[in-house]
Amino acid sequence: MSMLQRLTESRVWRALVRQGVSATNRNRILLVMDNVFLHLHSAKTRSRNLELSSTYFLGAISLVLFGILTLSGLLLMLYYHPSVPQAYHDMKELQFVVSNGLFLRNIHRWSAHAMVFIVFLHLLRVFYHKAYLPPREFNWVVGVILLLLTLGLSYTGYLLPWDQLAFWAVAVGTNMAEATPLIGPKLRYLLLGGNAVGENALLRFYVLHCALLPLALAMGVAVHLWRVRKDGGVQGSSGRYGSRRQVKP
Q: How far is Cα 199 from Cα 164, in angstroms, rounded to an integer?
């Protein structure tokens, strides 16, 4: 008996991989249903729906940029304190004292700019090919929400350097939010944690930028990719890929 066979027939392996690895449709479905990570994916999908070229790699580039932002953001958190005026001093030290600190900050900043641009192009690409039509209307809404979350991440990161540009950009943005009918003043107070841009606002924007919005974006991306596998992507919606009608039961 080979070493591989001994491994796959051991009690430890059978406890982890309960359904085995046989390539049958029934086994694939059982494997997906019993695994919390694989359950995000459909058991079967069209191979053309998994091709990155279906959206000119815009969706894949957006995902890669999000990964770069996550990694660089975690490294920046090691040198940053969300307090006044320490936040500004930390950014100055990161720029002039920390080895390759300016390079790390620029990677994070330019990746954020690029992600906003690429996600917007991805939205235009999907709209141009009418991939928002049934049965993909739900995934279109998820994509729009992901664009809003991306813009929210870009905006909440503005205040963190605590310089003049950050201060007045947030002051102008929250004043614009105050003009929202009915909920404007309460929305501004919720964002700032008070009536002016101060330490409460810095802490709230820090939590939004580093915890709440990235978590919401990650879950939204998981749902978005899952619906692409279930409903299909841009391919098969219009143009040179033809059209596909929704089949009603």
A: 14
